[in-house]
Amino acid sequence: MTEDKSSPAPSDAGVTPARRSGLIAIVGRPNVGKSTLLNALVGQKVSITSAKAQTTRHRITGVRTLDEAQFVFVDTPGFQTKHNAALNRNLNRTVHGVLGDVDLVLFVVEAGRFGLDDAKVLSLLPEDRPVVLIANKLDAVHRRAELAPWLKSMQERRNFAEFVPLSAKKAADVTRLFKILKPYLPEQEWFYEEDALTDRSEKFLASELIREKLFRLTGDELPYTSTVVIDKWEDEGELRRISASIIVERDAHKGMVIGQGGELLKRIGSEARQELEHLFDGRVFLELWVKVRSGWADSEEHLRSYGYE
Questions:
Q1: Binding site: which residues?
Q2: Fewest CB within 10 A of the end CB: N or C in the chain?
Q3: What is the pTM of this model?
Q4: What is the pLDDT of residues 80-99, one digit of tens each?
């Protein structure tokens, strides 16, 4: 018996995996849960959520770094298919601009549902990017067996890179999604520091969080063409003094926001302040005003002054 003197196979032990990083767009019609999914992926609220459709209006970037991989998620406004105001055109330009830059697209729909607005969004997705079909709100599907024929019909619409049924509210589903997406990230250096969560400023996050409370507490009565502008921001040690204006289009809308005896506006301010203090880990003094700017949503000049891209 001869002795094998050949060199042992090289070991991978101690070899650091190459870093990966990529831009991932989250797209879909309004109110399919894109912002909820983004917040779950980042692990912290960076995008506002509301039952009111068309809540997200800006390109919002959330970052999550896991091991050697950095996922840079871009939450987009839902494609606007029903209105042609300047605000809606602006939102659609934002979505198109995002899609030209990304490495991967997450197309979010409600599990078991696919309507005309979903089809319009799908038709606008780039052919030269891998698209992952996210069937969100899986927890709302009572009979999972009904998903099989629906999935077959979806596969006939496009050759999706992956099909992922999930609930954005379940941590295990979000963890599973990361494992599915990781191989699609290019091998390259990270875009952000390891502990980064978003590229948005504290001022932007504050305005969005106030807007979330506005929509949640006014329900369907207030038109979605209302926005929030930060007028003044002062840091005094651990205290942030914030003055903000809620912009509405009509005097009647102003009355809705203020409420009887100013109670609703007080509640909006109180709930926003509490969440801002949690987000910033410090005390916040928040002052809110309501201003009427007729036709602002159809004015390109107003949109620019209010920070729309």
A1: 28-35, 75-79, 136-139
A2: N
A3: 0.65
A4: 445 455 545 555 566 666 77
